[in-house]
């Protein structure tokens, strides 16, 4: 199965495939999920549509500096570890799409606070903004 994450303009990340999403030590298997990247959802890490009310703006490209790393382990499941007060840590082979750009990755740190200057990747801005989320 091909695992994929799409960066939606002004909206969430759409993840599809064999997903294992871990939050505060509890994990859940899913085949699709809309993951908040504006930081405003009341149902983090999932999107609840709050990006509209907070007028989140992001074109949905893959950032000025594409930050991907890791080796293909052949694992079929994409592990999405939700870091407390920080990014989504994505481990496993995934196709990341944003606008016309596509890249393959084995490890990604994706912003979920909405403040990164290099979206969709985390650039550490969550610390400066005091982002708090389980
Ligand atoms: S989670 Fe947004 S900059 Fe790290």
Topology:
Layout: E1 4-7, E2 13-23, E3 26-35, H1 50-53, E4 78-82, E5 88-98, E6 101-110, H2 125-129
Parallel strand pairs: 1-5, 2-4
Antiparallel strand pairs: 1-2, 2-3, 4-5, 5-6
The structure holds FE2/S2 (inorganic) cluster.
Residues 86-87, 111-113, 115-116, 122-126 line the site of FE2/S2 (inorganic) cluster (FES).
Notes on the structure:
- There is one protein chain.
- The chain is mostly beta strands and 134 residues long.
- It has a single domain (4-128), classed as 3-Layer(aba) Sandwich (Ribosomal Protein L9, domain 1).
- The chain is built from 2 helices and 6 strands, in the order βββαβββα.
- It has helices at 50-53, 125-129; strands at 4-7, 13-23, 26-35, 78-82, 88-98, 101-110.
- A hairpin with a 2-residue loop joins β2 (13-23) and β3.
- The relative contact order is 0.23.
User: Helical stretch count?
Assistant: 2
Q: Report the mean per-residue pLDDT as an integer.
A: 94
State the CATH topology. Answer: Ribosomal Protein L9, domain 1
What would you say the CATH architecture is? 3-Layer(aba) Sandwich
What CATH first level would be assigned?
A: Alpha Beta
What's the domain count?
Answer: 1
Structural class: mainly beta
Largest sheet: 6 strands, mixed
CATH homologous superfamily?
CDGSH iron-sulfur domain, mitoNEET-type
Summarize the structure.
The chain has 134 residues and is mostly beta strands.
Which key phrases capture this entry?
134 residues, mainly beta, Ribosomal Protein L9, domain 1, 6-stranded mixed β-sheet, globular, binds FE2/S2 (inorganic) cluster
């Amino acid at each position: 199965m091909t695992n994929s994450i799409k960066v939606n303009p002004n909206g969430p990340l759409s993840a599809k495939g064999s997903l294992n999403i871990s939050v505060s030590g509890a994990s859940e298997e899913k085949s699709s999920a809309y993951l908040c990247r504006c930081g405003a959802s009341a149902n983090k890490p999932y999107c609840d549509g709050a990006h509209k009310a907070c007028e989140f703006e992001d074109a949905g490209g893959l950032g000025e500096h594409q930050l991907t790393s890791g080796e293909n382990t052949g694992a079929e499941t994409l592990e999405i570890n939700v870091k407390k007060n920080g990014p989504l840590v994505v481990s496993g082979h995934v196709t990341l799409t944003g606008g016309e750009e596509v890249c393959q990755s084995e490890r990604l740190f994706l912003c979920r606070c909405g403040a990164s200057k290099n979206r969709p990747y985390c650039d550490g801005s969550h610390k400066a903004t005091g982002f708090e989320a389980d």
